[in-house]
Structure formats: C-alpha cells, structure tokens
Amino acid sequence: MFEDKFSDRTKNIEASEIREVLKVTEKPEVISFAGGLPAPELFPVEEIKIACEAVLTEAGSDALQYSTTEGYTPLREAIAQRLKDIGIETAIDQLLMIGGSQQGLDLTGKLLLNDHDTVICESPTYLAAINAFKVYNASFVEVETDEEGMNMEKLEKALQAHPQAKFIYTIPDFQNPTGRTLSLARRKKMVALANQYNILIVEDNPYGAIRFAGEALPPVKHFDTEDRVIYLSTFSKIFSPGLRLGWICANEVFINKFVQLKQAADLHTDSFAQRLTAKYLELFDLDAHIEKIKAVYRMRRQTMIQCIERFFPMQVQHSSPEGGLFIWVELPESVDARAVFDICIQNNVAFVPGEAFFPNQGKRNTLRLNYSNMSEEKITEGMRRLGTVLTSILGDNVANF
Amino acid sequence: MFEDKFSDRTKNIEASEIREVLKVTEKPEVISFAGGLPAPELFPVEEIKIACEAVLTEAGSDALQYSTTEGYTPLREAIAQRLKDIGIETAIDQLLMIGGSQQGLDLTGKLLLNDHDTVICESPTYLAAINAFKVYNASFVEVETDEEGMNMEKLEKALQAHPQAKFIYTIPDFQNPTGRTLSLARRKKMVALANQYNILIVEDNPYGAIRFAGEALPPVKHFDTEDRVIYLSTFSKIFSPGLRLGWICANEVFINKFVQLKQAADLHTDSFAQRLTAKYLELFDLDAHIEKIKAVYRMRRQTMIQCIERFFPMQVQHSSPEGGLFIWVELPESVDARAVFDICIQNNVAFVPGEAFFPNQGKRNTLRLNYSNMSEEKITEGMRRLGTVLTSILGDNVANF
Questions:
Q1: Where does the record place a coiled coil (chains A, B) (predicted)?
Q2: Is pLDDT larger for residue A291 or for residue B26?
Q3: Is the pLDDT of residue A399 over 70?
Q4: A234 at the B interface (CB within 8 A)?
Q5: Residue of chain A whose alpha carbon sits nearest to that of B267
Q6: Architecture of domain B45-283
C-alpha cells in the first residue's frame, strides 16, 4: 500500500535486521552487551535540575522561543574553548549546533553525496553512519583496520582506485564497533593523503573524551592544514544523550551550507537543551564529571577483559580499547556469530553480531560487546554465560584454526 | 573552495535572499511584522519549571538517556487523545515524535521525493516547506488560492496535468503566509480528488488550535478514507517552539518508514523535552493555556485589521484570518513589495515581501504581516508607519488599478 509512492532512496533502506534481532535482548532475564548506552547512574541529574531552574529563572521565555539555526552563542563559545583544549583552533563561526552527532552524519550525507558517490570508511564501521549515508545512496569502500586503526597503505590504494570518492569517514578514537584508536602517525598520514588526493575527511568523535588509559592523541582535525576535515562531536557520552546535542566544526564554507540544510531540516536544535547545557558548563565542572565516567568505565572495561581471558576459549581474539564503550571480538573464521547469538539468547546473554558493521560484506565471525551500561557483577555473570556458550561451540577443538 | 565536492541538491539551495533581507529588520528601532514568532510573554515558564523539576525527580536519569525513535509513549498517548478531540481517530502506532513539524517536511521529502518529482501546493505557500522539498530537487505546481483556500477546480486540472505528482502539500488552517482557511466543502473535495487521482496529501497543521473566530473545521485527515493523508503538527504555536517538538500522524506503512529515516537522521527527538511536555500536559491544562493565547492574538489581529482600514490606501487588499499568526496583503499589481520594503526600512517598519512564498514565479505585489509577536500599541505604530509609506507610493492615484 502506497509503497509505489516511496522514493528510490527509501526503497534502499531495509528494515534493519539487527534491530529485529536486538528486540529479543530486551527481556529482563537477558544480560545484554548489545546496546551502546552510557551509564545512566552517572548522569548529573541534580545538577541538571539546578541548571533548568537557573535557565528558566534567568532567561525565562527566551529559553523557550525559536532561536538561530547556528545555535546558542555561549554554548558554542564554551565548545570552541573545549576544542582548543584538545588541539582544534576554532571560532564560533565554524561551529553549528545539531541534534546529536548523528544529525551531523545526515547533514554531511546531504551536503556531499550524490547518488552512488563513494564513501571510504573503516572496516568495520559505525552502523548508523552506514544507514545515514545509505539514505543518500552512497557506495562504500571499506579499508582494513588493525589495532592502530585504518591501514594507511590500504587507504592510499583505495584513494587511487576511487579518485572521485567524496570523503573518508573515520572514528579515530575508541571506534564503534572495535574500540580501536588511530595511531598518531596514521592521523598525520591520513591528512597528508587527503591533501594529496584532494578528498575530504569526516571525523566522528563521540568517544574521544572518555580515555581511561594511554596517552591522549590530538584529533585528526588538529593536523588539518587545508580545512578538509569536517569534525563531529556530541555531549551524548559525556553529559546526556537524551538531550540530543552535538556539533559540527568545519570551515565556514561548509558551515554556511550546513546551516541552510539544517534550517530546512528542523529550523534549529532545541533552545532549552542548549541553554541548560551552557548553564551546566557555567555552574559545574564537566571535566570533573568526565573523570567520574572514566573511572567507572575503566573498571568495567577491565572486568570485561579479565572475563574474556578467564572464560573465553583461547582462540578468540579481542581488541583492547583505551577508552570508549566497546570491545570487538573475533571468533575463529569458521564460526558464525549470528548462530552464536541465537544460542546465547537461549542462555540469556546478548551482543551485536559483527556483520552489520560492514557496509559491503560482513565478517560473520565477529561481534561487539558494550561494557559501559552495567555493573561489574553483571558483566562478570554475562561474560561467564557467553564464555560457556563459546566453549561449548569451540571446545578444545583448535584444529580448524 | 570545496564547492566542487557539494552534492547537486546542495547547489540547488541558494542562500535565501529573504534571510539576508530580513537581517535589516533586527535593528531595535525597526517595528518588524516580518517574523513568525509566537508571543513569548505567554510561554508557561513557571509551569515548565515545575514540569522540569517533576520529571527529573520522578524519572531521573531515564529522562536523560537515549530513548526510542518513535517517541515517549505517554506523550504520544496524550497527542492521540488531542487528535481524537479534533476528529482524527488514531493510535500511538500511527504517531512519530519529531523535532518540530519542520522535520516532518524534511522526512516527507526524504520518504517520497525522487529528483524532479512534483509537489502540488497552494500558491503562495510556506517558505520553509519550499526549501525542505527543494533539498530533494522537487518541482512545484502551484494551485491558486482564494479566501476559501486552494481552488478545487484548479487542483483537479493540476492533477490531470501531472498524474505522477507525489503529493498535495496543504496548510488548511490559517495558512502561512495568507492566513486563509480551506473551507469544509473543499476539504471533502480535496480528499475525494486525492482518492480519484491516487495521490497523497501532506497536511501541515501548526496553527489549527489557534482559532479565535468562526467555527472550527475538522482537519483534512478527518475525511481521509484511504489513509492517504500524512498529518503534521507541533507544540510550537501552543506551548513552546524552542523545544522543537512536533509529530507525524499517518498510516503505519508510512510511520514505519519514517521511523527508519528519523533513526538515520538523528536517532530520536530530545527525551527530556518530550517528558517535560508530557508532564506539563499531566499537571496543567493546555487548553486553558491555548485560550489565553487566542484571546491575545484575537486582539492583535483585530488591531492590525483596524489599522489596515484606517491607515492603508483603499486599493490595498488583505486577508481576514480567523486564527493563526498572519495577514496577507495584496498591493495593486504594478507595485513591487520589495521596493516598498526598502522604503519601509528607511521608515523603521518591516514585513516579508510576498514573492518568496511562491516557489515558481512570485506575485511581487504581495506581502505578509505577522501580528502575534508584539503589543497592540506597537502594532498600531508600525501600521501607521507602513500606511504612510503605502499612501506616499499609491497616493490617490487609483487610475492604474
């Protein structure tokens, strides 16, 4: 009924199989490592209450009225300062407030992608970025990743093979789904290659502030000598995801067009959410709050890694993230994680089968685990269940691998 | 710089001339009828303060976490009840919460429009709808309107001439920019024509609740026998526009696809804004609040009409809205409202020249006036200035008209 009226782009978008799969993880008896939610018990509820009260008392109706598409100036000023602190020199004219960094992906697709344009991305990459770009009928060229992120030799080959590719999409810090971080040398190399091959970079950085081990690396945009990097970030992982507040930082040429597209898309981002976040930043110490998040996630990540070592068969590989929310697991090549998932659900434990994170052809022996959203006790119990399933499948039979 | 990387759709979107024009209206000495803002002094600031406090106390971190794309269930239930009250029988599965009804226009374009698909619309029509659909490279067929809204004979001719047109876009109640309302007979006829010619209808109803004269008419969707109407509405004009809260009401076939597109666009609408609005609806009486808005707008509209009769030359025509925020003015055909605007700015009064509201070829002798956003005193003074300018241009010289 009416499907014949749908646009071609809509027909490209299938109901996400993964979404259906994950519905079974919502049963209360299931310990689910499938989500990607921040720990809600860390949300600064009381501080936000104070910020709401202060905004409505001080700004009154201004906080509830239509506002500019660009975003609330004091908030953009605070973000510009925070970006400066991590090595991005910017000004508020280069910042646009958006409805979470997901909207940055949609607007980037809108701004840059014609039908069948090529996006070069990490393999695997963020599922909802794949979906955002698919809306604009993108083609994907996947570049292999290892523990240091995207392989630069492979990237150069991809650039040579696809000279018309529109942009490189990268999540350099604690990538979703792998948890891996692009090394310093590769960050510099990525920018050099972008300059050489005249391609843009879309740097998606939702997790960068959540580093609990190792040394912080400057964003790719820090090395951007030709304003080729469109940088996306968000308050979702460090403050509150429900408020849907993110930003785009890019050269004014991009921002001016983004503003036009944002205006046509939804006029502007929630004024009240912007003001209460600015007020929170004024009254409280976000960095101290982030330290609390990091301390908790550090322990949860450590617990999960310890459980892998303790409960999983030896032939299972895993990433060792220094921050963020996720660990990536590779099973022996002959094992289908989707089949493992079905057995796990019988045993009340869940994860995301990795296949969905590959835009072209998935590695079916992979899976993603989230550790940010539950207690260490629950992590240990869930991992014990998962380990039992994996051991029952893999046994001591390492001959195949 | 990098413009060669932009998508074709982006190249279609010019920097809005009107936006540049309106920048001069922001000077404090200018009395501007150019905006479209609700009266901020009527926003229920204290009630919203109480709702925020209650939500954060009762729901705590749940109000700040990621939530479902479809939207907060108690809010959708309350909206379903409100829709029932105006003649739309619906259920929450037919409702999607969005970031203001503007996002509904963007998602509708995304869902339905291939390049060069035709949208049939009122002439003139809402500027930001034109922009939203232009992003998807729409073509527009304008149908003449009169005091009863879109002309149905002309609509039928348009449907015959454009059998592949994707949808009819209509703002039946107190249209932006004309303030006109589609008559009851024409509402029925529009649905009958849509059925006959197998076309969809996008009904945009941001102003319907703000009726301060005449009798309320059921929405076009009330007469929708074949689920062809995609209905958009919002809390912007009756509660707070800054919160960016609107909804789509449509058959599940549409909603399911809208959910996928919304998820790719920005995951979901601000959870906190949804919850505080639901809490407001629970604790307070929105309809009583709307009565206050109506009482104020009724007086402002009356003042503006009286000023037209008192200060404007006789040959100037105007609409007589029974609700909403706008009055439409037609000058004699030889007069260019853009030139009038320039003189008005010298005299510290402003409006929107009407040309921008015509997607194809504008009637340059038209203009839009907003009365919702200022006191009666200010309206009177601004209209006096505007009348002086118009009299100086038109004088007693009616010979041309």
A1: none
A2: A291
A3: no
A4: no
A5: A102
A6: 3-Layer(aba) Sandwich (3.40)
Chain A positions touching B15 (Cβ under 8 A) are 256, 260
Give phi and psi for B43, each to the nearest 5: -60, 135
**Residue ranges for chain B with pLDDT beneath 50:** 397-401
Q: Tell me how far apart the alpha carbons of residues B387 and B311 are, in angstroms, rounded to a whole number.
A: 5
Query: Is B7 in the A-facing interface, judged by CB distances under 8 Å?
Result: yes
Distance from CA of B75 to the nearest CA of A (A): 15
Nearest C-alpha neighbor of B173 from the set B242, B234, B245: B234
Q: Do B56 and A45 touch (CB under 8 A)?
A: yes
For range A176-181, the mean pLDDT? 98
Structure-block tokens of residue A85: 């602190």
pLDDT tens readout for residues A309-338: 999 999 999 999 999 999 999 999 999 999
Residues forming a β-bridge with A31: A349
- What pLDDT was estimated at residue B91? 96
* Interface check A57 vs B, CB under 8 A: yes
Which residue of B19, B61, B114, B164 is the best one to mutate when testing the A interface, meaning the one whose CB has the most A CBs within 10 A?
Answer: B61
Would B3-43+288-394 and B45-283 be classified into the same CATH topology? Answer: no
| B265 vs A: CB within 8 A | yes
Residue B399's pLDDT is what? 39
Q: Mind listing the pLDDT tens digit for each residue in A69-95?
A: 999 999 999 999 999 999 999 999 999
Residues 125-144 of chain A with CB under 8 A from chain B are 128, 131-132, 134-136
> Does A56 contact B60 at a Cβ distance shorter than 8 Å?
no
Q: What pLDDT score does B362 carry?
A: 83
Per the CB < 8 A criterion, the answer to whether A350 and A30 are in contact is: yes
Residue B277 sits at the chain A interface (C-beta within 8 Å)? no
Our measurement of the distance from residue B17's CA atom to the centroid of its chain's CA atoms, rounded to an integer in Å, reads: 20
Alpha helices in A267-347 (DSSP H): 271-283, 286-311, 337-346
Residue A348 has phi, psi (to 5 degrees) of 60, 40
Smallest Cβ distance to A131: which of B257, B264, B271? B264
Burial class (CB in 10 A: 0-12, 13-18, 19+), A120: buried
Nearest CA to A390 out of A319, A307, A327, A326 is that of A307
Q: Quick one: CATH architecture of A3-43+288-394?
A: Alpha-Beta Complex (3.90)
One-letter amino acid identity for A207? Y
CB A187 within 8 A of CB A220: yes
The confidence score (pLDDT) of residue A17 equals 66
Q: At what angle do helices A152-161 and A184-197 cross, to 10 degrees?
A: 10
Strands (E), B255-322: 317-318
Rounded Cα distance between B383 and A143, Å, is 64
A12 interfaces chain B, CB cutoff of 8 Å: no
Return the CATH class of domain A46-283.
alpha beta
* Residue B395, pLDDT score: 79
Smallest CA–CA distance, residue A37 to chain B, in Å, is: 7
Q: If you average pLDDT over residues A368-379, what whole number do you get? A: 97
Domain ranges of chain B: 3-43+288-394, 45-283
Q: Give the total residue count for chain B.
A: 401
pLDDT at B401 (0 to 100):
36
**Where residue A400 falls among pLDDT bands split at 50, 70, 90?**
very low
CA distance A40 to A239: 10
Distance (Å) from the alpha carbon of B289 to chain A's nearest alpha carbon? 15
Closest CB to A243: pick one of B2, B200, B270. Answer: B270
CA distance to partner chain B, nearest, from residue A318 (Å): 27
pLDDT at position A158: 98
Instruction: State the amino acid at position A286 in one-letter form.
Output: L
High-pLDDT (> 70) share of chain A, %: 98
* B264 contact residues in A (CB cutoff 8 A): 13, 102, 105-106, 128, 131-132, 134-135
